[in-house]
Amino acid sequence: MKLALAAACAAAAGFAHAEPKPQWELGAGATAFTLPDYRGSDERRGYLYPLPYLVYRGDKLRVDRQGFRGIFFESDRVQLDFSVYGTPPVDSSKNEARQGMPDLDPTLEIGPLITVTLERAAGRQLDLRLPARAVIATDFSHASRAGWVFSPALALNLRPQFGGGRWNVGFNSGPIFATSRYHAYYYGVDSQFATPERPAYAARGGYSGWTALASLSRRFDKLWVGGFARYDLLNGAAFEDSPLVRRHASWMAGFGIAWILAESQRKVDVAEPYY
Question: Residue 191 and residue 201: Cα distance in Å, rounded?
C-alpha cells in the first residue's frame, strides 16, 4: 500500500522552524518495500507501487509526507492533528498459518495525534508522539471496524550535514497497545477454522509489542528520496500465544523516490516536518 512508506517515515518525523516554502508541490515517483504478511507472520511479500508526491501547506489543512492532516491546535511545543496509517491485504491461501481462513482486508487507521516537543536544538529535535487511531478493515466494497491502536513513541530527528547536503534522519521507538477487536482481527482463530495444528484462539486486548524505526531522506532540488527500516518485537504481547504467531521478531523496510513536477509561485511560512 502506498501509505506504508509515507506513514513509516512520518512516524519518525519532527518539525523544523518555519521558512518560506511553496504553498503546494506536485510530483510523482515510485516506492518499493518488503514486510511480513502481518506482525508475527513468518512469511513476507514485496510490493512496488506508484508514489504520488503532493504537498499542500495551509493554515489548518496540510498534505505532506505525514499524510493528510487537519491542524486543530498548534503552538511552539504542542501540536494536535490526526494521523493516518495503512496496511496491505493478506491472501490467506498464500500464508501457511492462515490456510483455510478468511483473507485479511487492507486496513486504514485514522485518529488524533498529539506531538509534544521535549527538546529542540540546532539540527536536533526530540518529540513525544501520542497517536490513537481507529482501525477500519475494507476492500472498498464493504468496511468493518477492527478496533483501536495506541502507539506512544519518542522520536529523535536529526538534520546532519554530510555528502554535500542536508539529510533528514529519524529514530522512533515505543510500545504499541491495542483493543481485543484489533488483536482478534489478526490473531484470533474462530472454532470453525480450528485444526489440530491451529487450535481455536480468543485474542485479548492490551500490550501489542514494541517497535523501533529508523528513516533517512533528502531533497535534491526537484528530486526527493527516502527510505526506512522498522523492527517489531512481540515478546510479552497479549496475543503471543496465538497459533498464528510464528515469529516473535520481524522487520520491514522500504525506499521511495519522487520527482517534483510543479510548485506554486506563492510562498508561505509554515513549520515543516523534517521529512
Answer: 8
Q: Find the mean pLDDT for residues 124-129.
A: 93
CA-to-CA distance for 265 and 244, rounded, in angstroms?
Answer: 53
CATH number of the domain bearing residue 70: 2.40.230
Give me 49's grid cell. Answer: 507501487
171-201 pLDDT, tens digit each: 999 999 999 999 999 999 999 999 999 999 9
**Residue at 275 is within a domain:** no
Mean pLDDT of the chain: 85
| pLDDT attached to residue 29 | 94
Is residue 100 assigned to a domain? Answer: yes
271 within domain boundaries:
no
* Structural domain harbouring 125: 3-264
Rounded to two decimals, the pTM is 0.83
Residue 271: band (very low, low, confident or very high) from pLDDT cuts 50, 70, 90: low
Question: Is 251 part of a structural domain of the chain?
Answer: yes
Tell me how many domains the chain contains: 1
